[in-house]
């Protein structure tokens, strides 16, 4: 696979002068690798792409599986100093879907879905370095057809709506707008992204079940990125990244 590393660097360098792009044939996890580097004292903005991850990680301690050639797996490490970190993963999701295709939707807090199936996910971690905080934004997207293997719902992939787009071309579309979105988030937080998230909100006005068993109707996200859920006991705001949400299956 030929990666457009030079074009990506040219698009991002004006925004981040000390930026580097790196492609590895194999690593355990691009997030883990960048977190290790930050903890070892490296805070330079870095985009790390892996052709293969041997221990890809998802949210809530889950594994993230991908095979060589069928996925885009990368992470971006960037020092950030927002007044409030709430909603960062939602802002990242908005940027990713807007860079790719109008049919892509976001399932709170940060899954990318296509036509009722999951196409990708976002895992954000942060590490302190002196008086700085570095965000490591990890993104995994299915690009080409892949096996359902073990997943409860079959996955979707990007070439369903963008035939011929390979992982490198997808990354080139995503990378510079992502950096711009992170810088916009640093200045103004999630609020400016709220209406854009609403346009892509898969759960809006759908029945949802929270992992604590609460059932309600999803009513969008607030200006901090919290999911509003209308329950029999009133409106609840779900903010915890530890909560998973799924559409309530329709009764037959
Ligand atoms: C999720 O859906 O739970 C989030 C998945 C995030 C996967 C990406 S792939 C690149 C980066 N490295 C990882 O180990 N995870 C993220």
Describe this entry's structure for a reader.
The protein has helices at 5-12, 30-39, 88-100, 167-188, 194-200, and strands spanning 20-24, 46-50, 71-80, 105-107, 111-114, 117-129, 132-142, 207-210, 215-221, 227-231, 234-238, 245-247. With 252 residues, it is α+β, with helices and mostly antiparallel strands. It has two domains: 5-199, 2-Layer Sandwich (BirA Bifunctional Protein, domain 2); 207-247, SH3 type barrels. The strands form two sheets. It has a seven-stranded mixed sheet with strand order 1-2-3-7-6-5-4, with helices on both faces. A hairpin with a 4-residue loop joins strand 8 (207-210) and strand 9. The longest helix is centred in the last third of the chain and has 22 residues, at 167-188. The radius of gyration is 18 Å and the shape is globular. The site of biotin (BTN) has 20 residues, from helix 2, strand 3, strand 6 and strand 7.
Concise description?
The chain has 252 residues and is an alpha+beta fold. Helix content is 24%, strand content 30%.
Q: Outline the biggest β-sheet.
A: 7 strands, mixed
Q: Given the C-alpha coordinates, what overall shape results?
A: globular
* Shape-level CATH architecture of the largest domain: 2-Layer Sandwich
State the CATH class of the largest domain.
Alpha Beta
Straight-line distance between termini: 46 Å
How much helical structure, as a percent, in the residues?
10-25%
Give the C-alpha Rg: 18 Å
Order of helices and strands: HEHEEHEEEEHHEEEEE
Q: Could you say how many structural domains there are in total?
A: 2
Can you list the ligands bound to this structure? biotin
Strand order of the largest sheet: 1-2-3-7-6-5-4
